[in-house]
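Hi U.,

Before I forget, here's the chain from the pilot set. I'm dumping it here mostly so it's searchable later in email.
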Amino acid sequence: MSEDKSYYFCGIGGSGMLPLAMIVKAAGARVAGSDRALDQGRLADKFQWLQDRGITLFDQDGSGLVDSHQILIASAAIEDSVPDVARAIALGCKRMTRAELLAEHFNSAPHSIAIGGTSGKSTVTGMIGWVLTEVGLDPAIVNGAVMKNFADADAPFASSRVGAGSVMVSEVDESDGSIALFNPEIAVLNNVSLDHKSLEELRILFGDFIAKSQHAIWNHDDEESQLLVNSCHLAKASSFGFSDGSDYRALDVLEKPLGSSFTMRVNGQDHQLNLHVPGRHNIANALAAIATTCAMGVPIEGAISAISTFQGLARRFDVVGTTNNISVIDDFGHNPDKIAATLRTLKAFPGRVIAFFQPHGFGPIKKMGAELAAVFSEYLGEDDHVILCDPVYFGGTVDRSLGSESIVDAIAAAGGNAEHIAARQDCGDRIVNLAVPGDRIVVMGARDDTLHGFAQSMLVAIAKDRI
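Structure:
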């Protein structure tokens, strides 16, 4: 499908763009691209890795677009005034969004699995991909996060896997409505809750998503998912969860700081599982992955064996390290459900929590700022701390009248300890000074690949500060 085509990715270093670029290159396409982070001198290792794999990189000034036969892959939200876009228009290049190109590949696969939902998509995608790989099905995988099981010295940015089998596994995004482009054989619905769109919009998108699949895998514990399933005439469906009535049900759960053990009941049979990723949400994710791979014909024993060796994803409760009995954790939490899952996991065990949060834009604050504040207030106690810097802002005309201080004010009004410090580095300095032995520091946020480095820098600073 991509053989002999020439794709130019605007923002090629992004978590969604990079894996797709590797997939289409493996399919025989010529791939080049640009990225604002490259122009700014950030993430040098990532861009060198892309260049080492034969991808030509350019400044984001339009210079990489020289031929009308090139196809520009760019976000629909990028304005026509951006140099790459302006140059593509001048040349008459075809333009596609990342989702359109991904859907083109996905829908042509002999067997396809799409993972949707407000939270947990990347983890479930990684789990399913790992199980299918371990049982020899050699799947293609497109994820939005680095999958630790596939990462090594040659593939440090393993957010995709180029498989030679007949199965393609991909997470799909509801935030821009592009989930509607995908026609999956198996559709996984993790949950439905407030994030980028209103619940009314999400109900339509997710309802259509599962309705056109041949087999839907859905969360029995999620009220919104249950309502959608009840309103759709599904060809086939399997549920997962903790509650009675789930087809794949977790019982006798024992949570641990870095994992869990539990019993999974399927068709009246009990199976023992051990996970190396923590939290009840990851137990639900594992149930979803097992249900999905069993729907693909994988023996349940093989699925259980593979899941027990799943190492997790980068920036998903990613323990950066511990020094002087102070742990630093990097996490992708950015909406109410994701942040709640992370804080719930942390508060299941003793120790103070210092939560740093970088909102992923001004728009999300306006849409769900009150809900974000409520989550921090609910899960963190009087000894815990919340520190916010200013939101991510990459330019444009977005309304910036409502910032991080609105969340801080709401947390403080509810009795919590919250601070707004505009500059992220100043937040780091404040956290290093606050931290004492026994604390867990969690760095949360999305749309910014430098957050992991920020978490690492605090760990280093704490180690030096305590010498």
